[in-house]
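Q: Sequence in, structure out?
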Amino acid sequence: MIIGDANLAETSTFLKVGTTALVLDMIEAGQRFDDLRLAEPVRSVHAISRDPSLQAKVELADGRKMTGLDLQWAYRDRAAEHVTRTQGEEVDPVTSEVMTIWGEVLDALGRDPMECADRLDWPAKLRLLEATGPATRWPGPRPGCSWSTCSTRTCGWQGPVQRLVARGRCGGW
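A: Exactly. Output:
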């Protein structure tokens, strides 16, 4: 999927906003992420976003290699430490929910990304892409559309994905 593609699933949006807020809070508190700096950020984002198997490894500035899932876990672990350090035992309910869902989603993605097809946009879109073909009633993505080039709008998926969300088959937590 194209990075920045519109999220229609509530869980995707909740995690995007919630995790970003936590990382910004950590940065404001002085947390450094130098050891997680990507050697080639643009190339790395492309490699990760174009690999639905979640196995693509990208190089960090210090020469180590990590998958996108490994990077997410590193950020989540630091966020958990930050929350414990700053909020102690009385974590606010929204932060607690972000941390819980973030961990659940990462666990599920590690087992099988399709476990998240009912919660996240990209596995739902991948399921639609894999399901299209001559036997389906929906004509499928437009010609030339593939996992690495397709966005909701360019592949004509906005309607089908919106229907999945409306039917409760994608997006809630």
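DSSP finds six helices and two strands in the chain.
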